[in-house]
Each structure stands twice: as C-alpha cells, then as structure tokens.
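The records we work with from here on pair a chain with its fold. These numbers are not coordinates but entries in a learned vocabulary of local backbone shapes. To see the layout at work, look at the sequence and tokens printed below.

. . .
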Amino acid sequence: MSSLKVIALISGGKDSLYSILHCLANGHDVVALGNLYPPSIASSELQNHEGDDINSFMYQTVGHSIIPLYEEALGIPLYREQILGSALNADKDYAPAVSGNAGHETSILTPRIAPSESQEQDETESLIPLLNKIIRSHPEATAVSTGAILSTYQRTRIESVAIRLGLVPLSYLWQYTALPPYSQSALLEDMAAVGQDARIIKVASGGLDSSFLWENVTDARTVGRLKRAMARFDARDGAVVGEGGEFETLAVDGPVGLWRKRIEVEVQGNVVGEGGTAIARLGKARAVDKKEGEANKNVLEILRRPQLLDKEFEMLMRMLGEVDFNTSSKGLSPDHLNRFNAPLNSPADLPAHLPVDLLTYHLATSGPLLTISNLTSPSSGPIPSIQLTSILSQLTTLLRSYSLTSASIISSTLLLRSMSSFTTLNPIYGAYFPNPIPPARVTVACGEALPDSVEVMLSVVVDKEGNGKRKRGLHVQSRSYWAPANIGPYSQAVAVPLERTDEIHGKARNRTHMVFMAGQIPLVPTTMQIMKEFKLQTTLALQHLWRIGRATDVRWWTSGVAFISNCGKEEAEQRALVAMKAWRAIHEALMSMDDGEGGKGEDEEMDIWDMKYRAGAGDGLDQFEFDSRPALPDYSTLELEEADFEPIPPCFVIQVDSLPRDADIEWTSLGLT
C-alpha cells in the first residue's frame, strides 16, 4: 500500500483530530492542517477572539479562536482561510455550480450557472483557496482527511472539492457506529482509550443543558450522562457522538505521538442562547508541555481499528473454510444440487466464436420505470471509446423522446469485450453524468460472447417520473473502514419509489423503494486493494453488498447475482458452489440472529433502560449498546402463506470473461425497502 501525504481538515472538534490518528495508523503522513474561520475577523485577531458562532451547516466555528494553537500542540503546520459565502446549495448530495458553456453536458442537462464575481458562492467552495494554498506549500500532498461520521452533507462537499483538486478523500470515521462493535458510544470509548481529551463547548439539544459544558466527552461518566439525556428524547443513531448537532467539542489533549503539547483554556462562564443552546465562553488559551511521566507508548499499537468483517460474515468465512466443496455440498438441498451439478461451460471449453447475432436495442416499460437494453454502435468502428460516445448519443436521443435527461437514469449495465478498455471508457461515461448521484453500475467483460464488432454494450434503467428528482442515492468517494470508495463514476446504490407519482399521492413517506445496487468486488475499504483467496473474496464482496443495503434501508433482496471470472471448468463449478453456499448461509445465519439467538442469557438481569440502550454480550466493553443495525433480510416484512416456503431469495451465478480490478467475483442485487 502506497503512503498518502495528507492534509487534515480540522475544526477543533473531537472527530477531525481523532481522524488524524487513523491516517497515521493506516500508514499515511500528515503534512499540514487546514481550517476555515468565520468572516469579518481580521487575521491579527484570529487568536483569543471568539466572536459569534455562525451556525454553519458545513463548518464548526465555535471555538475557532483556539485553532492557531494546534500548530504548536501537534507540531504540524497550520493554514487558515476565511469562510466565504453561505449554504446556497442545501441539497444533501453536493455538486458545484458549473459554467453555462459545459460542452456536451449542456446538451443533456441544464446545469446551474456558476456565480459571477459579484454573486455569492456556496460556502463549500471556500475549501478551494484553502487547499490550493496548502498545495502550493506542500506539493507532495495527495489526500485530504475529514472527521465525518454520518453526515452525507459534509462528506459529499469535501469529496467534491477533493476530487476536483486531485486529492484522495479520507473519512476513516464514516459509518463508524455501524461497524463492529455496532455501538454509538464505541467511538468515544476508543478516544478515551488513547487519551484524547475533548471538551463540550456547545449544546443544542433539548436533552442537554449548560451543565455539560467543558465536560470531557470521552469520560465514561459523561458518556453515561449523554446516553441518559438522549434516551429521554428517543435519540437517533449518532446522537451520542453529536452527529445531529446535539453538541460540539474542542480537543485539548491527546496521545503522545501526535500531541506534543496540550492546550490550556480559561473558561469564563457560559452564554445561554435561544432554543436551549448554550456555549462555553472561552478566554485566554495556550499550549503547554504535557505532564511529566506521561507514558510515551506507541499509541498506534493500541488504537482500535474496526475489524474487516462483521460478526455474521466472520461466521460465514469460518463456515466456508470448513466445507470441502470437492467432496461435499453440505447445506444444499437436492433441488439445489440438481440445478448446480449441471456442467458449467467455461470460456476455455467454448468455441472460439459464439454464434451470437447482433442485438438491436429494446425498450420496456414497467410502472414508472423504462428499461433501455442492448445499446451498441458497431458501425462507428472498432475503437471502444468511439463506440461508447456513439452509444451515449443514441441514449440522449432516446431520453429526449421522453423529455428526460441523464439525471433520470438510476442503474446501468456496461458490457465490454475487454476489461483493458475500462480505464479509457470511464472518463467518457462519467462525463455523461455530472449530477451528484450517478447511476448504480455493473461492469463486466464478456470477451467473445459479445456479437461481432461490438466492443461496448450499454443497458440502463430510467425513472420516467420527476427527471431524477425522485431518486436518492449513496455515492461515497472517501476511503474508510466501511465499504469501498467508488472506483468510477457510479453510485453504490440508487433508490426510487416503486409506485408512480400519481399512485403515491397522499401516502405516507415511508413507501417502498427499489434499490439498485452497484456491482461489489472484494476491495479492502482502507487500502482499495483486492483480497486474493476466493472464499474471502466471496465473503468480503457480499459484506459490501449488505453494508450498502443497510445504509440505504434495504429490507429484502429480490435475488443475488454473482459474476465469476474466467477459469477452468472444475474451478468454475467449485466457485459457483461457494457463491451459492455463501448466499444461502448468510441468510440462514441472519435468520437465526433475527430469531433472537446470541443475546443475553436468561439468568442475567437487565433493567428497562439497559434493555433499550445497552448491549451486554460480554465483548469487553463496560457500556455496549445493542446492535442497532437494521435487519437485512427483515423477515418481519414477509407474509408467508405456505408453511413449507423457504424465505431465501434465489441466487444466480454467471461466468464472464473478467471483472474490474481482476477480481474473481462481483456481487449485485436489487433491494426493496
């Protein structure tokens, strides 16, 4: 794994400072700190001038007068710029305003026009002069770090700027509460374990009052108080770590190895505002030497990094490792075996040329969805990039006939003759989708299975209603512990309502959505490298599908589709059985967990508060909340009429020529919320 040179964006809060430790633990170097401060403050007044909190949706500004001290406390150069503009774009998923002369894009979309110099810009764009300033001083910089945990609003904005500047976005805390041990308080406990001291300097929740101000948020007593306070107000995921703006913090100390000094602050009382808000009034501050005798241990050795596999996928991996598929098909019913023991034809067994006729494109409508299948352009010549350009032109014409644009496309399947053309085609494909939620995509190479002269074939699913306004998506471009960042212009998942607009008028907002999933290959999220062993590849890629499904509220898979790459006949049969076994076994395991196995013993007592807000499965944490991840599959959503019906969706295994990044398996599915 190559080391990245990281610009750490800091607000002074616990998460941005703690993220730096994870950058270091993953082998990267932090070359600079970056911060944006509120407007109308002269540079000479930046220190010891607190002023008003501007309540930015994007940036923490309370406590900004302390920021200059981090350069001395951490020994890392700090760069600051002023926040300009305001939150003009309030969409959860961010895309910058573009100029009206956008070439090809103006022919398929009506973009927002970039503001002139006299017009106000979105506050997000304030990051560009800050990062450009740092890059001029540190041209070696290759990445930018953020402390986003659950805020899509913050993450997508930093990703947008980072990608435009050629920087790799890092969000190691992303979805942290959904990772082992699946606890809201685990993050605070992890911070305490390495000695991070972060003080609450603002409260803005009905459950919190001024008595919380200047408490160390990582202290066990404070964590307990936060839980009890949030419990009274039916707190949602992330409340205990302040992800909903319930409170804001200021880190004043941390482990030796990152923190060379600690920060002392004179607190001069509290300022109580409207709506139950309260802010600690900060006075003079300074960086001082750390206490004598403080252990100079290697904090990176004790820093907990979430394990690669969830507990149910660890069980799946162990089960796959125990089964010898050469001699046993344990767990597959006779009906399954009859289907899977049919001989598979690997590409090596097939004739050099398959007699496949050139397919014409096909249109099909089902409810609000339009499917456009098998778009090709062999007449444009043998060069894949020219064929794709022609296909996209055809697609634009077809969409216009329905008064639609590329924003209405929710899913695509890209078939290539050779995966070697993937890198060339990605920018062409990506330029067609400038909106912040590109379609979910499956890409496979089919080799000689494609018709003569066809290098590229494209199929898309289109939402005919709202021209893209009804869809919601998950488009994560940051590296994290959670799931792989996008390696191309696609979303991990895109959801659209199952019903037509006229059918859902007046109904509750929690209507059923179809969730189209991108193909998932076995990339390690932190390194973006492929795992090698096939059973581990199968398990990890399937876990990616599950984690993305849970994040997009999927409750049921309609089926599982596993693409396996070119290999010999025997190995292909074995891989198909591994994939099929994995699909079946994970459903069976989760069915058992859904029935309540693995919880507290009957002889252990828990009071009502414990039952709702703590777990107690004995994994070493004093305060461990129940696994609050949504059930997937959610068997409570089924209405079973036949007693002997087995509630496991079907699984299809398809052998292709090759997969992205030379993966051996790629999983995809269609989910229902």
